[in-house]
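Loading example: each entry is read as two labelled lines plus one structure line.
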Amino acid sequence: MGILDNKVAIVTGGSRGLGKVYCLRLAEEGARVVVADILEKEAQAVVDEIKAAGGQAIAVKTDVTSEEETVRMAEETVKKFGSIDVLINNAGYYYGMVRQPFYEVPVEEWDKAMLINAKGNWLCARAVFPQMKKQNKGKILNIASEACFAPTKGFIHYTASKWAAIGLTRVLAGELGQYNICVNIIAPGVIDTEATATYLDFEKMNTSSVPMGRFGKPDDVVGAVVFFASDDSDFISGQSLLIDGARRVN
Amino acid sequence: MGRLDNRVAIVTGGAKGLGKAFCFALAKEGAKVVMAAHRMDEESTKAVKEIEAMGGIGVTVDVTDEKSTLQMAEETAKKFGRIDILVNNAAFYYGVGRQLFHEVSSEDWDRALAVGAKGAWLCARAVFPHMKKQEKGKIINLSSEVAFSPTKGMIHYVTSKAAVIGITRVLAGELGQYNICVNAVAPGFTDTPASWTIGNVAKFDVGSIPLGRIGVPEDIVGAVIFFASDDSDFISGQTLLVNGARRVN
């Protein structure tokens, strides 16, 4: 008995890091989970883990920058589970990103960030929209970053792409409200994941800027994902929620 | 089995309107609820009876009076042994009137700020020693969509609700070290008896609301439960609008 019983949830980039944590918890709350990722083997491992715990899940190979693949992701989901109730637009370009000043970011890197972090969200939303419209209900959750709310140094392409995600969240909320589809965005702070560890040494991080005295763990973020996927947030749309131990406020 | 089993929650302005809905929702999730009300009239007394049947209690409080807020915290601790959740919901809203800024009386201004802003601060002060001792706590302040809109009228009410956001942010900064999370929920126009004193709720133009309707109290309770639960343990200082996407933050 979970608060997402009978819901069908797609998690893009669901094979590792935060996305994997979202998949496991959504399944624990009763959702049938579609692990959508370009990494097929890793996605299948998450599916196996969910099944071993008694849940239901499938893996669908998805490149969120390909319209064709996002449409197929939606089709496979409906074919297997009959509905799409929740889309977690978690796939993003973050892993391996280099922290450079704005004048050093290669143009290709800028394009890649915008392609995956902005266009990918839009394409996935487009792909699930017909099904959610038919159901007259749906939940779309996008992922921004605390970086959007801070005088960040470096990562201009990442931060701009995450603000773009906030912008598209607001327009989608405006356009999809009439179909009872809620669209929101969460903005995690520094979270101890493999991707973050590629540019930060957590042992040496100064936590004095965080009122709650520590940086985040994946488990700190997943509660908000469940909330925005659940019926508890049925009248909330277009909003951005920071999850960062009060380091920044919005 | 609820998400707030064994938690103790205080809700100010808890016997009517939104506050009453919060009390029942928290109790359904397993919390022991202290329904704190300014006046125990017939409606409030009935609500207290209902919360008592769910394992809670009613207390009388004037949130603008320091001594009274301390008594509320003491009674709660005496009865239930702890204080996990404070919902600062009391406000001067019922009958506040929609006057323009130059028409609002000085007395009404003082009352709106006393109940809505100072009240939230005093109640937070009152529960703080208990939450500090527990090394955990959740404070949820009620702001309003009006603080995010070019509202016409109710300058005193809007100012009090904007002040609540300031209070939320400073408390988040100061109380984080004690693992106390402080967040604000900002509902849009919600169908409650108090809203009917502001205008004809049924005639509200829902064309400005993407979700196509105004809210009902049940729309707001989910956000309160979320901020009261362990699922929001790393979220503090934030303001969440619950308004069908009419305004965004």
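The longest strand of chain A covers residues 181-188.
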